[in-house]
């Protein structure tokens, strides 16, 4: 009897593969990512670039560093040019491939219930980043990088919401005053549609009510 109970328990509590509730597409602004002490390359892109695509859960533990297939360049050759342009490493001394590999090892390997292989994972990020085209969304709302202008966080969020990409999570360099926009994170259902709101308690990390989006 005890053995039967044990077997039934084992059946119901067998650890399943790491699953995720939603996906976070993190976009970074190279200029502010590269503030000291970051050590960046020269000739940074003047556009939001992809930082990562993170499978996430509503509650901790957040998936990271799962066991899975290693990335090799030949798995993504068909999209390599786009990855170099849209998902570049900004760090001096780190190749683009090392950056992709780091992101794959930390996050991508935890998303195998959504993406069967690295090509699908990386392609998804490129497709969704282009579909949202946040630089354009903000530009259409007269929000663009500038040395002088200060934007209210609400205005930035509203522009993104009204374009149909949901309430994002913003991250800023808080040591600057006003805080400097560094990252915009969009949240997606695992079926690829944008969520109405990123399901985080804290939607503004380090950002004040106003922020700058500096050009240099
Ligand atoms: C995607 O999933 C969400 C949440 O389950 C659902 O509300 C939405 O209708 C789905 N969209 C599509 C296109 O399947």
TrEMBL record:
The keyword Signal applies. It is an enzyme of class 3 (hydrolase). Its EC number is 3.1.27.1. Keywords: Hydrolase, Signal. The keyword Ribosomal protein does not apply. Residues 1-19 form the signal peptide. One of its GO terms (molecular function) is RNA endonuclease activity. Belongs to the RNase T2 family. This is Putative ribonuclease T(2). It comes from Medicago truncatula (Barrel medic).
